[in-house]
Amino acid sequence: MLPYSEACERNKAPILDVLRAAFEDRRRVLEIGAGTGQHAVHFARNLPWLRWQPTDRAEYLHGLASRVAVEGPPNLESPIEFDVLHDPWPAIAADAAFSANTLHIMSWPAVEALFAGMPRVLDAGAVLAIYGPFRYRGQFTTPSNDLFDRELRERDPASGVRDFEAVDELATRGWVDADGSVTALGRLVREEIEADTDALAAGPYLALGEAGTAELVALLRPLAERVVSSGMVAFPNPVGLVWPPTGVATVQ
Q1: In what order do the strands lie in the sheet with 94-100?
Q2: What's 6-182's CATH class?
Q3: Among 26, 91, 116, 166, which residue's Cβ finds the most Cβ atoms within 10 Å?
Q4: Which helix (H) or strand (E) holds 128?
Q5: Is 39:63 a contact under the CB 8 Å cutoff?
Q6: Does the structure show a pLDDT above 70 at 249?
Q7: How many CB atoms lie within 10 A of CB 174?
Q8: What pLDDT, in 10s, does the model give residues 44-102?
Q9: From CA 111, how far away is CA 85, in angstroms rounded?
Q10: pTM for this one?
């Protein structure tokens, strides 16, 4: 049985009306948190000029992939795993992004990571469209959203309906425009982050050489294991650390 969301069935038509205009000159859309895949199938089917790339975290990927395989039109691409708190981000370049009913489920650090990382996957001038409930000036728009927020926070204190002004502030940092378009500054920030990351990662290796780096890893691993086992480092975490590490050279 395919996963199903009644909310997706209710809101897919009005969202499509907005996306039809917002994405009329777009070519490829990255959907973040595609969930059951109902939105992905509906939007790809009704916006046939787009290549629609759905993504989600590993635990939701099987159901999403099943729906895409059964119902997906030709322009709906196979879903890929994506968690905004973990690298690598999808190695794609899209000129639009869409996410529905995700910000209130994600922790605030994850929301920040989402906006900070957009320049890594979006072309300059890309359009970002986000659907979901918000508070405006600290006020809920409906009593039901107030109740929904309480239920979310009871289940997970890190979740909850977001303040529109706080989310808008992430956009007005200069990385995306108020209409969701990635700015030239956003692209520049992406390039600077990638260059700095490459330089920092290469420095120790270049100084020590391959054998020296392998020896250092072997010496530090017991300390790292003690730190991890103590619970001092949370997983997942905003900086994308994973355990155990992969692709690390060791000495025998």
Answers
A1: 80-81, 51-56, 28-31, 94-100, 122-131
A2: alpha beta
A3: 26
A4: strand 122-131
A5: no
A6: no
A7: 12
A8: 999 999 999 999 999 999 999 999 999 999 999 999 999 999 888 888 889 999 999 99
A9: 9
A10: 0.70
